[in-house]
Amino acid sequence: MRYKQEIVIEQPKSRVAELFDSSENMLKWFPGLLSFDHMSGEPGKPGAKSKMVFKTKRGDFELVETITLNNLPDEFIGIYDTVGKGMSNTMSNRFVALSDDSTRYEAEVDYTFSGWNWKLMSLFMGPIFRRQSFKVMKLFKEFAESQPRSAETEGS
């Protein structure tokens, strides 16, 4: 299952990427994220792995993020494996400057499932996955727009 989404953020591209690239910030805007812990590799570099723990109505679950590309402020790609659940997704995040104070955040998500139960469920759950992804993008937008511009972007 693959889909694309985009949203415009009223902040300079460099500031959007700076806010996006912080695991500490992620705890402030990503719903249900309890922790983000580095596991291996050089943080922020391709091959680095981190464990993300989420709390949901159905209980806690873990994802392992593996960075495959970090070319910020332009692009960040990660693979997110759901521990013990047979589900994985690759998320490509791109940031495009629309003006000095406006950035388009483009996300392309590609889910893969193992096991017939996940594959069958994905047929029905597609719209829910899309809505959830867009909700997270909107929350990031709200967070980013609520943050002051950094000293580097002042006057740009």
Set down the secondary structure blueprint.
Elements: E1 2-9, H1 13-20, H2 23-29, E2 33-40, E3 49-56, E4 59-71, E5 75-82, E6 87-99, E7 102-113, H3 116-146
Antiparallel strand pairs: 1-7, 2-3, 3-4, 4-5, 5-6, 6-7
What would you say the CATH architecture is?
2-Layer Sandwich
List the total number of helices: 3
Overall number of domains: 1
End-to-end gap = 39 Å
Rg for CA atoms:
16 Å
Q: What is the mean pLDDT?
A: 90
Structural class: alpha+beta
String of helices and strands: EHHEEEEEEH
Q: How are the strands ordered across the major sheet?
A: 1-7-6-5-4-3-2
Query: In terms of per-residue confidence, which ranges show pLDDT below 50 for 5 or more consecutive residues?
Result: none
Main sheet attributes: strand count, strand direction, barrel closure: 7 strands, antiparallel
Q: Which range best describes the helical content: under 10%, 10-25%, 25-40%, 40-55%, 55-70% or over 70%? A: 25-40%
Q: Count the strands?
A: 7
CATH class: Alpha Beta
Q: What is the assigned CATH homologous superfamily?
A: START domain
Summarize this structure briefly:
With 156 residues, the chain is of the alpha+beta class.
Task: Describe this entry's structure for a reader.
There is one protein chain. This protein is 29% helix and 45% strand. With 156 residues, it is an alpha+beta fold. It has one domain (2-146): Alpha-D-Glucose-1,6-Bisphosphate, Chain A, domain 4 (2-Layer Sandwich). Strands 1-7-6-5-4-3-2 form a seven-stranded antiparallel sheet. It is globular and about 50 Å long. It starts with a strand and ends in a 10-residue tail after the last helix.
